[in-house]
Design a protein that fits this description.
single chain, alpha+beta, Hypothetical Protein Aq_1857, Chain: A, six-stranded mixed beta sheet, three-stranded mixed beta sheet, 9 strands, disordered C terminus, ATAP_core_dom, FeS_cluster_insertion_CS, HesB-like_dom_sf, Iron-sulfur cluster assembly accessory protein, 4 iron, 4 sulfur cluster binding
């Protein structure tokens, strides 16, 4: 019997594997700062998917102090992340991050389910197919 037959999983690795969505250390710092200034008690970051953008789907994020029926709630690095049931399949395994560049900064989603994305990084497709009918066009629309 080899070690490959019986992989060893540390508690930290098992916890990370169990989380359907995570947030980077820098993303968590930025989110905590924004949440602290929101004035909303027990608020979290709602991460969701909506139709639109040049690739078919767009990411959305909002500060939310409501927990809706069917929500998946994940606590990671001190931040509460809320994902609605419809968005969950498209976001599973994703990491929320915060990036800064010459154009400013903002939250982004590193999504292993995206098979393609547009240049702006706010729109993506999961199956290589064209955008849903009536969707598409310019980035961020």
């Amino acid at each position: 019997m080899t070690a490959e037959m019986f992989p060893v999983t540390t508690p930290a690795a098992a916890e990370a594997e169990a989380k359907v969505i995570t947030i980077s250390e820098y993303g968590a710092q930025k989110a905590q700062s924004i949440l602290a200034g929101s004035g909303k008690q027990d608020a979290g970051v709602r991460v969701f998917i909506k139709s639109g953008g040049c690739s078919g789907y767009q990411y959305g994020m909002a500060i939310d102090d409501r927990e809706l029926e069917g929500d998946t709630i994940v606590y990671d690095r001190g931040v509460k992340l809320l994902v609605d049931q419809a968005s969950l399949a498209l976001l599973r395994g994703s990491e929320v991050d915060f990036v800064e560049n010459l154009m400013g900064g903002g939250f982004t989603v590193n999504n292993p389910n995206a098979t393609s994305s547009c240049g702006c990084g706010h729109s993506f497709r999961t199956d290589g197919a064209t955008a849903p009918e009536g969707q598409g066009g310019s980035c961020g629309s």
